[in-house]
Amino acid sequence: MNLLLVNQYYPPDTAPTGQYLHDLARALVQRGHEVTVICSRRAYNGREVFAPSEKMDGVQVQRVRACGFGRETGIGKVLDYASFYTSLTSRLFFPGTRPDLLLSLTTPPHLGWLVRGAARRHGAVHAHWIMDIYPDVLAAHGALAPSSLVYRGLAGLTRRELRDSPLIVCLGDDMAERIGRYVGEAAPVESIPLWSDPALTPWAGPEPPPFRAEQGWPANDLVLMYSGNMGRGHRFAEFLAAAERLKQDRSIHWVFAGGGKRRVEVEAAASRDPGLNLRLLPYAPSDRLREHLCSADVHLASLDPAWQGCMIPSKIQGIFAVGKPVIFVGGRANSLARWIEESGGGWVVPENDPDALLRAVREARDGGERRRRGAAARAFAERHFDRAQNIQRLVDLMETRGRPRPGIGIASSPSLR
């Protein structure tokens, strides 16, 4: 088949959505499909500018012009989105070849609406790989009230962009349930978790990872680490309150590595009380991610209940892959909590329950308990977060459901089979 994949970001950009899309595109090429990706020339951070076209691992990459204000301000993001939409439209409706299937991700928001229109013009199938659900994300963020006219208008747009699609893929069952409110039983929704990098494996040998030694964390101390994006959908108040109550115990280290809108909360706590045994670090370098994750004894994760089903952070995949347990703060009706409870790979703590969090930390002091839960986490990752297995599921769905139905699409060109 001739496949056209669309997302704002794609390698060499480091945005995770682009990295996952490249994994899929490469696998599709290996299956004999002709694959083209349309993305932005601008990097996620707005600074780098990439070549207008190139071939990567057999994937033809076409990049369109867009503004590069980056992610620092809301207006900058909107301008980046708008300029990408404008440049994308002409390229999408006149791609040079007639695609059999168009797959859209969800960056920028409502990209699927434009892709659906292009698919109808080409007589092709439109498919959706949903990473975030809009406008639900805006409501969770508090930017829109669900009763507002704007919200209802955007919700109607979501329903239209998903209409008639034979393939809608999302990242977890809670997200599938939420998408079901838009499509009902008219369109099947598949749930396939994102995968971990095969290079992420448990640390072998008696010596701790070099990263831990560099930070000066003694082998017998307890390192609790939050690693990754500190975005609006996460919670930090519970962790900071626990750090306050346990600050006399200098053998417990609270580490927050990464960036995002809510990092300022952690910075403010550290500034208010220098006595907290708290350390702020930047994002882990990609070439040292394994030893970075392996340097913690227990990882921290959170999700505000308002964001359940709107997004599914991918940090659990990497943590489980290296065989580390997780203390998760948030509701139970989300994929992260379900994975942790099903696997036995950590602790699920309700929001606003400091005593439950302290109990989890006390249990995490037991090395045997950590090893047991870490082994359970690794076993779960091997079953559910395997890259080859999950990509294969995606490819199979695109090859079966992605074939045009009478009256909707076209038969694949013989030259592209």
Features:
Rossmann fold; 14 strands; 417 residues; 15 helices; 2 domains; globular; alpha/beta; six-stranded parallel beta sheet
CATH superfamily of the largest domain: Glycogen Phosphorylase B
The secondary-structure element order is EHEEEHEHEHHEHEHEHEHEHEHEHEHHH
The CATH architecture category of the largest domain equals 3-Layer(aba) Sandwich
Tell me the radius of gyration. Answer: 22 Å
| Separation of the first and last Cα atoms | 5 Å
pLDDT < 50 stretches: 407-417
Structural class: alpha/beta
Overall 3D shape: globular
Helical residues, percent: 40-55%
Oligomer designation = single chain
- Biggest beta sheet summary: 8 strands, mixed
Q: Which percent band covers the strand fraction?
A: 15-25%
**Strand neighbour order, sheet with most strands:** 3-4-2-1-5-6-7-8
Helical region count? 15
Task: Please provide a written account of the structure.
The protein folds into two domains: 2-195 and 386-416, 3-Layer(aba) Sandwich (Rossmann fold), CATH 3.40.50.2000; 210-384, Glycogen Phosphorylase B (Rossmann fold, 3-Layer(aba) Sandwich). The chain has 15 helices and 14 strands. The protein has helices at residues 16-30, 74-93, 111-122, 136-141, 149-162, 173-183, 210-215, 237-245, 263-272, 289-294, 315-321, 335-343, 354-364, 367-384, 387-400; strands spanning 2-6, 34-40, 53-56, 59-64, 101-104, 125-129, 167-170, 189-191, 222-227, 252-257, 278-281, 298-303, 326-330, 346-349. Strands 3-4-2-1-5-6-7-8 form an eight-stranded mixed beta sheet, sandwiched between helices. Strand 12, helix 11 and strand 13 (326-330) form a beta-alpha-beta unit. It is globular. The N and C termini lie close together (5 Å). Mean pLDDT is 93; it is low at 407-417.
